[in-house]
């Protein structure tokens, strides 16, 4: 896969789980935080065309607050400014409230997706009440209006509205896990693991098959 396609894939995955990243990550780099803010605004424009649960909309509002604290807190709090100055601009941050010395593979591929899934289940993010249209926090007037404002809701939209609203939070968990796999593969720990696996494969002895002559 080319570098351009890999970067595009990671951007799409971050778009799919931006509310989870905004909620879970602490002290991201300034560039990464700005990128999350842009994706967050764009996602709200997209979600306005889809049904959603009330819990999902409240989750997005809470994630917006967390993202705002991460972005602007570094200019207000000395500790946050010091921590953010230690990481590069594109650093994705670390899992909130968890020790930095834990293995990145465990944090990214197991703990973070499990915590987000548990959050969705415990707080019933995907449960009723459902609304036929997600109410965005931001809206650009140049976009076409969603269903239900000027044009009525089509039959297929009404038929699948509950299924879509219930499934969207779980798609966020899937996107988070895939994004974390890409993030781990690009990290120093992931590259060391990949080199170690490659080294084990190259050092494995090649089986030698000796021809055997059968006695007559």
Short description:
The chain has eight helices and four strands, in the order H-H-E-H-E-H-H-E-H-E-H-H. The protein has 216 residues and is mainly α. The chain has one domain (8-143, 151-188).
Summarize the structure in words.
The chain is mostly helical and 216 residues long. It has one domain. Helices cover 62% and strands 4% of the residues. The chain contains 8 helices and 4 strands, in the order ααβαβααβαβαα. The radius of gyration is 23 Å and the shape is globular. The relative contact order is 0.17.
Percent range for β-strand residues: under 5%
Order of helices and strands: HHEHEHHEHEHH
Computed over alpha carbons, the radius of gyration is: 23 Å
Number of strands: 4
**Mean pLDDT rating:** 89
The dominant shape is globular
Main sheet, how many strands, which sense, barrel? 2 strands, antiparallel
The parts where pLDDT drops under 50 for at least 5 residues are none
Structural class: mainly alpha
- State the helical fraction: 55-70%
Q: Please report the number of helical segments.
A: 8
- Trace the largest sheet across and list its strands: 1-3
Count of discrete structural domains: 1
Distance between the termini: 56 Å
């Amino acid at each position: 896969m080319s570098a351009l396609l890999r970067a595009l894939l990671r951007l799409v995955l971050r778009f799919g789980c931006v509310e989870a990243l905004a909620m879970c990550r602490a002290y991201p780099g300034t560039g990464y935080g700005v990128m999350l803010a842009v994706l967050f605004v764009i996602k709200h424009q997209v979600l306005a065309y889809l049904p959603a649960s009330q819990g999902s909309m409240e989750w997005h509002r809470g994630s917006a607050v967390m993202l705002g604290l991460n972005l602007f807190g570094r200019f207000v709090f000395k500790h946050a400014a010091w921590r953010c100055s230690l990481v590069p601009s594109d650093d994705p941050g670390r899992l909130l409230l968890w020790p930095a010395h834990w293995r990145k593979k465990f944090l990214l591929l197991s703990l973070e997706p499990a915590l987000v899934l548990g959050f969705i289940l415990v707080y019933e993010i995907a449960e009723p009440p459902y609304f036929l249209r997600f109410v965005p926090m931001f809206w650009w007037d140049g976009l076409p209006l969603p269903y239900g404002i000027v044009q009525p809701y089509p039959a297929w939209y009404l038929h699948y509205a509950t299924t879509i609203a219930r499934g969207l939070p779980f798609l966020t968990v899937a996107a988070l896990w895939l994004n974390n796999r890409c993030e781990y593969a690009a990290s120093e720990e992931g590259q060391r693991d990949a080199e170690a696996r490659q080294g084990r494969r190259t050092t494995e002895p090649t089986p030698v098959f000796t021809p055997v002559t059968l006695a007559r």
